[in-house]
Amino acid sequence: MRVVVAMAVLCAVLGTLPARAAAPVEAGKVFVGPQGELVAVVPLTPRDQKKFLVRIQGTGSVLDGLVLPYTLKDWSSVGTSRLSYTTQWHGRSYSPFTLVGPRAELHFPGGPGNGIAVQYDEARSQKLKPEEVYAQHQQQTQSGQLAKLMAFDRKAEEATHDTSYAEALQQMNTACAATVAGTIDWASVTETLLKDANITRYCAFPLTALKAMCATSEEARRTVKARLQRIDCRFGAGLEPTLQGDRFVWTTNTEASNQEKSATRYFKKHL
Length: 271
Hints:
Mean pLDDT: 92
Number of strands: 11
Largest sheet: 8 strands, antiparallel, barrel
Low-confidence stretches: 1-20
Distance between the termini: 103 Å
């Protein structure tokens, strides 16, 4: 009798507990690449919001194993269908998986510039468990892993460009047999500019100009070695190179054209 009563009480208690909410996902699709790359695409409900979870595997890139939230965006034009699964990556919109007409393309860091073709796999799609993909996404979200990767990290971005600028400066120094130092004036770079532009590219124009000059002229090598101690870069309203004693300040702007040629002309006239 006690066992029967205990079971009745347990059933009553369990009956009062809320049922576990089902994961807000629907059946997904799996795409396979030529080297075993995998893309699992899981739609979130409601479908009309065009939200998805995408898990990329087998690329050997930093995207492997991550289950990031994506929005399906339609960039189609007349005669051309183009859909992109877009997420946030270090504060920028990022679309590693796209559908261009009948072709499905996977793009990832370190991969081919035009991406790789992946094919829909019916068997793998049938075996895919969208609830497990959702659970993995939840775990990565709760651990803070995804937020860190999706957020804009200005210090890390600056450090990357500082390293690239130093490499370009070293190449120029090698060509010119010089020991010129230099920095990027980060106070002149807005967050929007840092997100949208390749800062190193614009800052390196005078360095590549001097490198080319030194590669063909002994006089240029002697002049750079004797006249320049610093080459600093900043962003302003326009292209305004200035020579301040032994310091050259390259004030650049993303709208200016033919910047390397402009730098070359300036050095030939003022050095």
